[in-house]
Known about the structure:
The complex is a heterodimer of chains A (530) and B (66).
Chain A: E1 7-12, E2 14-16, H1 25-35, E3 45-46, H2 81-91, H3 98-101, E4 107-109, E5 115-119, E6 122-126, H4 133-152, H5 154-157, E7 167-169, E8 182-189, H6 194-207, H7 209-212, E9 216-219, E10 225-229, E11 239-242, E12 250-253, E13 265-270, H8 279-297, H9 309-317, E14 325-327, E15 333-335, H10 336-354, H11 360-378, H12 388-401, H13 409-418, H14 427-433, H15 443-451, H16 459-468, E16 473-476, E17 480-485, E18 490-495, H17 504-513, H18 517-524, E19 527-529
Parallel strand pairs in A: 3-16, 11-12
Antiparallel strand pairs in A: 1-6, 1-8, 2-7, 4-5, 5-6, 8-13, 9-10, 14-15, 16-17, 17-18, 18-19
Helix pairs in contact in A: 1-4, 4-8, 4-15, 6-8, 6-9, 6-10, 8-10, 10-11, 12-13, 16-17, 17-18
Chain B: H1 9-23, H2 38-48, H3 53-58
Amino acid sequence: MIFDRIIGSETEFGVTCPARPGANDTVLSTLVVDSFAAVDGGRSGWDYEAETPLRDARGFEMSEQEAHPSQMTHRGHVLTSEDIARELIEETPDTVNPAFWESAVMNRVLPNGARLYVDHAHPEYSAPEATNPWDAAAWDLAGDRIAAAAAAAIPRRYASTWPDPVLLYKNNTDNKSVSYGSHENYLVPRSLDFQRLAAGLLPFLATRQVVTGAGRAGIGASEVRPGFQISQRADFFERLIGLETTVRRPIVNTRDEPHADAERHRRLHVITGDSNLAHTSAVLKYAMAAAVLTLIEHDAAPRLDLADPVAAMRATSHDPTLTTRLELADGRRLTALEIQREYAEAARAWADRDGVELRPRDRRLFELWFEVLRDLEEDPLLLADRLDWVAKYALVKGYEQRGVGPSDPKIQALDLQYADLRPERSLYSKLVSLGRIRTLLDEERIDAAVAGPPEDTRAYLRGSMIARWPEQIHSAGWEVLAVRDLSTDRVHRWLMDDPRRLTRAEVEEALGRAATAHEAVLALGLETVS
Amino acid sequence: MAQFRESPQESERASEREQEQELISEAKPVDQSLVTETDDILDEIDGILEENAEEYVRGFVQKGGQ
Lengths: 530, 66
């Protein structure tokens, strides 16, 4: 099935505390992650031992000396409460009792199978593994509610030390030279040649923003000038292929950390995306990428080769009229939309040839995809009720007609406040409540994704174990569960290296019969790892 | 390697069909009675936009991320 794939997303939220300008970002992020306890009682940590961020998909490892400090997710990344306390005391000596910080939790595994943690200067939500674009979008959007609820709990939890509201934004730049990511992860077979994968992806990733962009009131990376563009992230990419995610960002990222059996799988880490709020943008982001990967795997992707993908990505983003022509290596000149249509048509043709009758949910994805392309071809503004960037663009155009131009602070405020996670302040939520933006996933479905894990991946086991035995789960990683054996008080690490296993159908009965977490993993026959 | 019992295929398929029905509920159409002219929308937006836009925007400073 063309859209079936293991998919996971990561969202780094912008974080501020207006009452305390200059408050340390890591501290604010810690307040958010720690305060999730006020929403839910879980305290289980994260298992870092399986992280190998310096392994490169092209088959070599970068030495630690060469790596940028922010890449060291398996080491420097594990901020201790002592680090935080030290930092905080240096920066704001009057406000904190160091003992208070010793109990702060910076990493959480959630009952929905996700991870909520402090990633450098941002709170980050990593969604649980899903098997299809609809679920990937539901658990992505669930993360917004989880993060918002955690942030809203801060003044309650820290009434005496930090009563001031901490605000979160689901965007990707502060428009002052800094960008933070919205990453997608797709499982691909190890047997697929990486160079072929990269070549197939470049034209797709450089131009998909016409559907998936979140819109940005500002042009440029480090020097920002007024103006509107389609993507939050496009200006921050500098080269084609590479390992980094924070500096010299590449369109195709080579971080090779499958969080699964590495003999069989590779995890494609896509870092070019914008954080989406509009359901159509979010669902299609995952659906389009899943389909294009299926095409590349079956050697059925369109033969497209952009002359300069980095420049093309920017040129596409800077033209909301979608008329700019991009040069291909063979001399053709296509618009971003024409390139996207080639991928969509190829996907449709492949699905037809495949001969398998499409399930209703897959048919719906094709309908959405083709409707959006058709309307973009007719008039991009027709999509103001479906795509993030167009919703924003329509407002910007409206203000322009009132004489409020792109250099007016109001336009940047609009861009920022669109992504405010407080429902009563969010312009996105306002537009939905006014009936100006359509939704695809209903409230109940997103709330269910807040509360529980997907049922058809190993996230089901992770989330269910955390929910049922929070005190017995010592820590968890994507492919590891560390469980305390109450009879010996020893912790054993158990391997779950196939994302498609340990589903509800496979584990529910054993979980139901087990009295302890240790009993449950024994009954499931998992293997231990050291 | 871990050993698992195979689940009964039939019930799995049935529950998949049920799930699909929920999943693909039509996109909620825009309620026409709520749709107003652009001017009205901008008035609505003006109503919740931060009053001091300049300060609001200036105050949003982030450190780098991934």
